[in-house]
Amino acid sequence: MELFSQTAGRPDLRAARLSLAVAVGLFGIKMLAWVLTDSAAILSDALESIINVVAAGFAVFSVTLAAMPPDKRHPYGHGNIEYYAAGIEGLLILLAAVAIVWESWDKIFNPEPLPNLGAGLGLLAAAGGVNLWLGLLLLRQGRSSGSLTLEADGRHVLTDVWTSAGVLVGLALVWMTGWLWLDGAIACLVAANIIWAGFGLVRQSVAGFMNESDPALLASLCDLLREHRHPSWIDIHRLRAFKSGRSVHVDLHLILPRDMTLAEAHEQVEAMEKLLANHLGPDADVMIHADPCADDCCPVCDAEPCDLRRHASDASPLWSPETTGDPIRGD
């Protein structure tokens, strides 16, 4: 009960629950269209909607769990559950594609009449319009809340929209021309599109589990630190950052003048941590290690006056994702 009471009012959780309710309703509409028409293409669209239902269920669970604060067993939080959910959704999409090809291949060579095609197309068009609205809503909410699960669910729903649009166009051609073999061919093309989307989600999930570097995130952090650089911040190295659900974890080494007192160094570390936390939001986890300067830091040091200087200062450090990942000077 505590798990759900702490997250009940969150916009991202409301969006996930809405996605689940709509997915169930649209699956029923598409199955009705298939029963009316016996179309392999419409069945392929309906099978993908089963995945929408499962994916939306995963989204509700993972968004709820990812929002829980860190605890003794999970000191880095629960955000990685979102990568798990996205990976499962990708694998289910691939399984749906295999099922679609299995069902549809024979209908290319042995086509069958399609009764009630007009009514089926009307139902499919209505379902596609609702899916377009839902997909855009999920993408917007996922990006604003930093939820990979909602983004993945939104992309999948929009993939379903393109699927429905392709099926509608193809079956309209069948209706006008009488080329019944197009029904099976369209279903196989739908399966190819689903395979592409499924591999994309699996790739994104694996990248998240492996804490893959995010160049855009690192670049934004370097720009922020460069813009607000304090004269005593001589250089930064070993900058690392990764996302875990809504949370962003950042750690780096900050080089400070070696004649600073411990209290002064602590004050500068806290100032940088506050700067990063304010930029990244309330779910940021920032860890900064302070290091004393060495003689080879002098060329990029702006700290004046300095009785320890051995070389003239000739330029400020050009902090970027490439340079801040280097080992610390003097190591």
Characterise the protein shown here:
This protein is mostly helical and 331 residues long. It folds into two domains: 2-209, Cation efflux protein transmembrane domain (Alpha-lytic protease prodomain-like, Up-down Bundle), CATH 1.20.1510.10; 215-300, Alpha-Beta Plaits (2-Layer Sandwich). The chain has helices at residues 2-5, 11-37, 40-66, 81-109, 117-145, 148-177, 181-209, 215-227, 262-280; strands spanning 235-244, 247-256, 284-292. A three-stranded mixed β-sheet has the order 1-2-3. Helix 2 (11-37) packs antiparallel against helix 5 (117-145), helix 3 (40-66) runs antiparallel to helix 4 and helix 4 packs parallel to helix 6. The relative contact order is 0.12.
How would you describe this structure in keywords?
single chain; 331 residues; mainly alpha; Alpha-lytic protease prodomain-like; Alpha-Beta Plaits; 2 domains; 9 helices; 3 strands; disordered N terminus
H/E element order = HHHHHHHHEEHE
Overall pLDDT confidence: 80
Q: How far is the N terminus from the C terminus?
A: 51 Å
CATH architecture of the largest domain: Up-down Bundle
CATH superfamily of the largest domain: Cation efflux protein transmembrane domain
Helical percent range? 55-70%
Structural class: mainly alpha
Strand order of the largest sheet: 1-2-3
Q: List low-confidence stretches.
A: 1-9
CATH topology of the largest domain: Alpha-lytic protease prodomain-like
Largest sheet, strands/sense/barrel: 3 strands, mixed
| General form | elongated
* Beta strand count: 3
Number of helices: 9
CATH class of the largest domain: Mainly Alpha
Number of structurally distinct domains: 2
Binned strand content: 5-15%
Radius of gyration in whole Å, from Cα? Answer: 27 Å
